[in-house]
Please model this.
Amino acid sequence: MIYTLTLNPSIDFNFFLDEFHEGSLNRYDNSYYFPGGKGINVSRVLHQLNVPATALGFLGDFTGAFIESALTDEGISHHFTPIDATTRINLKMKSHVETEINGKGPLISTKEQKALLAQLADLTEDDTVVLSGSLPNSLPADFYDTIIQQITKQGARFLLDVTGEPLQEALPYQPFLIKPNHYELADLYQTTFTSVAEMIPYGQDLQAKGAQHVIISLGGDGSLFFMENKVYQALPIKGELINSVGAGDSMVAGFLAGVTLGYSPLESFKLAVASGTATAFAADLATKTEIEAMLKQVKINSLTRKEESDEN
Model:
């Protein structure tokens, strides 16, 4: 079984307006409400790719009820830990620029934390857990580390899409996949990059420290993939950026879907690129049809040996 864990889920309220005028009345044209949170996004894209997963995390009050209802309507399995506080609402304004206003998250009691950890006690070596997204301020700073220790104790594998110290602390536990973007990679190593080539040693260092596979998303410049002693680059695909929110989560889902369906790691990376790009060009998370169409445009080059380049 695959589980996605979202410790700080949200309702994502997306609204569209031609122009935004600060300090005055603005009226949006269209709006959509989606169950949000990085792990939930992964579950939704996995569902599109016909790979079942169960969404876990904390949900509370009327906003939490909406998320549960929305996932049920989509046919997505979930088993959230109920909390007394209200799940947050995040605002995503789509105008001449894309603007996000995110809530910090609810208060989660010690009892509620223990209830979630108890769910992980039943994991087996056949299970996979996706850990992604921010921690509510009320959770201990090392809560991800506590979760990862529980997962590895049960023999399950995990994929990690977090930043900063939680990522550093997780590397010795050999995550199956990590996926920082180039900004997060620079912050992690307290440096700056002026070229893709400069990022490669840092991706290799993440591998040396324990990560089995590494994807570094480069925004409009494509993405890098590190596996074993090889490095690949997915070339950028042209299109109109509509929705950067969820593109990274879609990449994680695409990679995991590929592995689950028996693809090689490189073929799984191609599916990851198609999934992330399709979401970036869509109003919501990408559908299976959109991902399959995008897959035909994915081109991968080897940066390790020229003869390994894949232009298909």
